[in-house]
Amino acid sequence: MNEGQPARRPGGRSARVGAQVHQAVTDLISERGYGNFTVGDVAARAGVADSSVYRRWGSLETLLTDVALTRLNARSPMPDTGSLAGDLRAYAAQVAREITGPDGPAVLHLAVALSSTGQQGLRAGDILRADRMRQLQSMLDRAHERGERALDALDVLDHILAPMYIRVLFGIVPLTPDYIDGLVGRLL
Amino acid sequence: MNEGQPARRPGGRSARVGAQVHQAVTDLISERGYGNFTVGDVAARAGVADSSVYRRWGSLETLLTDVALTRLNARSPMPDTGSLAGDLRAYAAQVAREITGPDGPAVLHLAVALSSTGQQGLRAGDILRADRMRQLQSMLDRAHERGERALDALDVLDHILAPMYIRVLFGIVPLTPDYIDGLVGRLL
């Protein structure tokens, strides 16, 4: 159909509308920032009716969460290189590519905006984080089962993900390969 | 005048309005999240006219930046304990107190929301970060001048501030004294 999508995928039109709406969201976040646009703005940018957006996602927050989940999770299966150091380096490099890519900073801002402040109970973005942390822990557990040292997903969050997230959120880029390997080396 | 404010401070009424508007902003961020309220909402919550807010701050973004700057900077002079380890421990504990306090997570979300995505040029929140980093570097430079090891403010950002920021943004709290000292110990 269009580039990067399988040609005979069932539900082609629905998938195309989904992709257009997702792209409209990331464009609007990049241009205006989170919170500065409505469902109507997204629909207009995507060239679809407001009602199509509401019917499929129900609310702006659900749509935003869907975009963040899709962008930060589905695109990146966990590495399985056979060694803990290899897995962590590949994982860190993959996250760095995602969050510094064309819409990466916008999507990261979105993921943070959708996360709990600790005062309002669980928010949609917390599900994103929990899911991601489970995938990461599985990778670390595989290494431990092979006889390598045990690491907790929170260690990786603190010393590999958090520095990269904060640098991208604050615009302190690029994240060079040396910088990323340094984070992994320090943790190990 | 009211609690916590000097009684005969010049410009007392102006200071009181300022404090009410700031508190209204942090309340609204806690309750609704960044982006989900207008200058009108702030004015109504603070009990002042919309025009007072516009006259003083000009725009919602300027007001939000003023709140974030005041909350994250003015309240916390840099420690000067005589040793690098002591300074870092005191600084980390102070930041942890700020960002986990009653409005802390809301203010941190705000500071991140106001920071650059790297695609839009300098935003208001970047000034906040640059100012904070300069203060931090001065503290580190004092230690180096005393003959202690040289550290860069970015090392502190990566390995002390970033983990605490991300944990608070994602609602992974509390930040215990052991956790905070562990971050400092690992950096040193």
Automatic annotation (TrEMBL), chains A, B:
PANTHER family xrefs: HTH-TYPE TRANSCRIPTIONAL REGULATOR RUTR, TETR-FAMILY TRANSCRIPTIONAL REGULATOR
Record-annotated DNA-binding residue ranges: 38-57
GO molecular function annotation: DNA-binding transcription factor activity; transcription cis-regulatory region binding
Keyword set includes Transcription: yes
Matching SUPFAM superfamilies: Homeodomain-like, Tetracyclin repressor-like, C-terminal domain
Protein name, as recorded: Transcriptional regulator, TetR family
Pfam families: TetR_C_11, TetR_N
Stored InterPro entries: Homeodomain-like_sf (IPR009057), HTH-type_TetR-like_transc_reg (IPR050109), HTH_TetR (IPR001647), Tet_transcr_reg_TetR-rel_C_sf (IPR036271), TetR_C (IPR011075)
All residue ranges annotated as the HTH tetR-type domain in the record: 15-75
Keywords: DNA-binding, Transcription, Transcription regulation
